[in-house]
Amino acid sequence: MKPRRVEDRQDHYYWRAKKEGYRSRAAYKLKQMNAKFGLIKPGYWVLDLGASPGGWSQVAAELGASVIAIDLSPMKDIEGVTFIQGDMTSEETWEKIREIRDRFDVVISDASPKITGHWDIDHYRSVELVEAAFSIARRFLKPGGNFVVKMFQGEETPKLYAEFKKHFRFKKLHSPPASRKRSSEIYFIGKGFGGKFKPKKDE
Ligand SMILES: C[S@@+](CC[C@H](N)C(=O)[O-])C[C@H]1O[C@@H](n2cnc3c(N)ncnc32)[C@H](O)[C@@H]1O
């Protein structure tokens, strides 16, 4: 496949993904975050939100996890990954997840709206996805579970981070080396869901 954009042609991770058989350069972001923070272990159940074309799911499956992956767009099969095509913000999709599995060790979300390059617009469009990912995490994460969610930085970031922080023992805003330098994306990493701040029973 030919690289579509100038930035892709210049991009080390783009070529590396082609060479090493990953479906996206994003795969290296999860690899790097996992190496640094120890998020996914063999035998874990992982819920991958905004998963297509499947780089993160490939990495999670390689790490020995069983994966349920969600995306609006279709995704080609990956061994060890069950794919649900649907909107992660809709109850209908949540119900489909629940039918397969009710509790996960890790929830990861690389979901993003179509990027415009305007930081403010991209930020506000991503907030809904970040909030949905967090609601899903609160619904599906086991106590002690881990969470990763991408957000495009902006006005709402401190508020969202303050809310996340209450629910995890370890928390960090992190930008992996594989993130493009000029991108406004940042990842919230939470480990130890519940921690000393137990979520309410109805959440
Ligand atoms: C950056 S891509 C994810 C790349 C993926 N992590 C990988 O490694 O291949 C972002 C994805 O979020 C998905 N997405 C955006 N809004 C969504 C929604 N409401 N529900 C489910 N997926 C969504 C898009 O369809 C797109 O495939």
TrEMBL record:
EC number(s) reported in the record = 2.1.1.166
Which residues are involved in binding S-adenosyl-L-methionine?
G54, W56, D71, D87, D110
Give the UniProt record's GO annotations in the biological process aspect: methylation
Chief place where the protein resides? cytoplasm
- Per its UniProt record, what Pfam families does this chain match? FtsJ (PF01728)
InterPro entries given in the database record: RNA_methyltr_RlmE, RNA_MeTrfase_FtsJ_dom, rRNA-MeTfrase_E, SAM-dependent_MTases_sf
List the catalysed reactions. Answer: uridine(2552) in 23S rRNA + S-adenosyl-L-methionine = 2'-O-methyluridine(2552) in 23S rRNA + S-adenosyl-L-homocysteine + H(+)
Q: Cite the entry's keywords alphabetically.
A: Cytoplasm, Methyltransferase, rRNA processing, S-adenosyl-L-methionine, Transferase
Active site (record annotation): K150 (proton acceptor)
Q: Where in the cell is it found?
A: Cytoplasm
Residues forming the Ribosomal RNA methyltransferase FtsJ domain are 22-193
What GO molecular function annotation could you give as one example from this UniProt entry? methyltransferase activity
Q: Please give the function described in this protein's UniProt entry.
A: Specifically methylates the uridine in position 2552 of 23S rRNA at the 2'-O position of the ribose in the fully assembled 50S ribosomal subunit.
Family affiliation: Belongs to the class I-like SAM-binding methyltransferase superfamily. RNA methyltransferase RlmE family.
Q: What is this protein called?
A: Ribosomal RNA large subunit methyltransferase E
Its gene name is rlmE
